[in-house]
Amino acid sequence: MTTESTRTTETASLRPPSEPALPDPRRWWVLAAVAAAQLMIGLDLTIVNIALPSMQRSLGLSDPARQWVITIFALCYGGLLLLGGRMSDLIGRRRALMIGLTGFALASALGGAATDPAMLLGSRAAQGVFGALLTPAVLATLATTFTVPAERGRAFGIYGTAMGSASGVGVMLGGVLTQYLDWRWCMYVNVPIAIAAAAGVLYAVRPVPRNAGVRVDVLGALLATGGIMALVFGFARAQTDGWSAAITVVPLVIGVLTLVAFVFVQARTAKPLLPLRVVLNRRRAGSYLAVFSLAVGMFAALFFLTFFLQNVLGYSPIRAGLAFLPLTVGLIAGVRAVTKLLPRAPVRLLLCPGLLTIATGLALLGVVKADSGYWLHVFPVFFLVGIGTGWVLITANSAATLGAGQDTAVAGAMVMTSQQIGASLGTAVLSTIAGTAAAGYLHGHPGSGARAVVHGFDVASLGAAGFLCLAAVTVFLVSGRGEPKVR
């Protein structure tokens, strides 16, 4: 882990020599542009879920192809984030932002105009590729633009609100567009957002000279991309084929072995894709673990609640989307609270309460019944998960990029990589637990139907709550007592 001298160096590197001594007068425009860019990606992660049934009917998608509409984006996005972070350093953040926004917009337009499954799946893959270039550039731009402690907290707070609320907004917007227009608008909606964000980047983000010392670690890129893609693919197959199926086990084993080889190569490469100093820093290690754990619980909760609202309570897609609003309200509340504490409290005293708040929400979800009402049983879950998510995301993004210097983009990319792996693992594992528990309940209570399904969700949610409590303890120990505050 880091030594005192390393911490001093990192704190001193908050304002690299290449950065201006005075705050950029257009910094708030920079924030608006990059927040819009990340909001677009966040929307895309959920908005397509609502449109999937309509996509399937319109294009004649088979059930396996329907699942690939989600999986192929996750594979390309999660697998290429680390390479995207290094490419951002290589070509420059401003150029990476523009290429990412342009490519994502064109891919979205292609998906909206899709005439067959292959065209749709190709567009989703392209969205993942350009999103993987865009996200690290967004975080690096944000981290290097806001170096004044008070403003840094506010900036990451606003960014986190946009990023965290995207899930709820995506569900609601997807329902409105699908019901009143057409599923294609769930893809087209990215185009005007990308145009607005690109205009903001051109206006506000100043060009920074490319670091001549940056090189792409080709072997590291292949190992990291292949390993992460194999893991995400294996987790995705576990949901449909089971954990013992060869199509699940083989990719998972390959993914683990490939990532072990990746770590071995990074330790011996002069210009590594992911310098080990990034993840061996205790503050960053705690942040990555916290985001991974958050994703395990949050995405499973959203998956369960989406099913519960529509299939058990009988909500329409629009009403289900509106039911997600407390998630956004809670997230904003969590962001506002933690933003004031960022300059004052150690990292572990910020990450752990957020994880425990999510755990509390999941524990409440674990006692929901088939006849439970929205306001008494579902609303508190959304609100608590929102508070905890905002709390953790802001702290982790700020802490991971603090003082990272030339590693800022790849340090930020690791946050989203942790989230993608956590979301894939959490959805796969908890869906399996829920299905097994539901089957057991149905066997003992024939004809129970919805009660059996909700029982499965209850068991999985309580398991996720326990996992997050354990994760909070681990993050507390990993982050280290002597680590600096997030300034």
Model description:
The protein has 487 residues and is mainly α. It has two domains: 412 residues, Growth Hormone, Chain: A (Up-down Bundle); 56 residues. It contains 18 helices and no strands. The longest helix has 37 residues. It is globular, with a radius of gyration of 21 Å. The protein starts with a helix and ends in an 8-residue tail after the last helix.
In summary, what is this structure?
The chain has 487 residues and is mostly helical. It has 18 helices and no strands. InterPro entries: MFS (IPR011701), MFS_dom (IPR020846), MFS_trans_sf (IPR036259), Sugar_transporter_CS (IPR005829).
Q: Percent of residues in helical segments? A: over 70%
Compute the number of strand runs. Answer: 0
Our estimate of the beta-strand percent is: under 5%
Helices and strands, in order, run as: HHHHHHHHHHHHHHHHHH
